[in-house]
Amino acid sequence: RVGGAVAGTARASAGASRPADRRSGQPGGAREGRTDGKREAAERRNARHRATRDLKREVEQVERELGTVEARVAELTRAMADPEVYGDGAEVKRLVAEHGAAKDRAAELLQRWERAQLALEEAEAKVGGS
């Protein structure tokens, strides 16, 4: 019994390393097709990542910088709303100039963000991303 079972097991395992596909009779069969599909999907994800990685970083970096500049604009707006500031003409001029420069910088960053976001969306569409 033991000898027969061992011999039978050895024969079964020596026959083929992968079960044959019932349809084609080829080793591996449907399992290989699933593996190939998974590999192709992984390759598409990797290609999408490579194509969009730098653009995503650009969008994120511009968003951070824009957030900082917009916070500064808000801070300067609050400072200019303080009636006591208007007692010092030089301070008012400084605040107005800094506020204008910050608003200009925010507008530049918004345009840069829009360009980067558009480029990212185009790259994702090109490689089939979401």
Instruction: Determine the mean pLDDT.
Output: 82
Total helical segments: 3
By DSSP, the count of extended strands is 0
Rg on CA atoms, Å? 32 Å
The rounded distance between the terminal residues' Cα atoms is 60 Å
> In terms of per-residue confidence, which ranges show pLDDT below 50 for 5 or more consecutive residues?
4-16
What does the largest sheet look like? none
Order of helices and strands: HHH
Strand content: under 5%
Give the helix level as a range of percent.
over 70%
Shape: rod-shaped
By secondary-structure content and strand pairing, the structural class works out as mainly alpha
Question: Explain this structure to me?
Answer:
- The structure is a single chain.
- Helix content is 81%, strand content 0%.
- The radius of gyration is 32 Å and the shape is rod-shaped.
- Helix 2 (29-81) runs antiparallel to helix 3 (89-126).
- It is mostly helical and 130 residues long.
- The model is unreliable at 4-16 (pLDDT under 50).
- The protein has helices spanning 2-15, 29-81, 89-126.
From the structure above, extract its key features.
single chain; 130 residues; mainly alpha; 3 helices; rod-shaped
Short note summarizing the structure:
Helix content is 81%, strand content 0%.
Ordered list of secondary-structure elements with their pairings:
Elements: H1 2-15, H2 29-81, H3 89-126
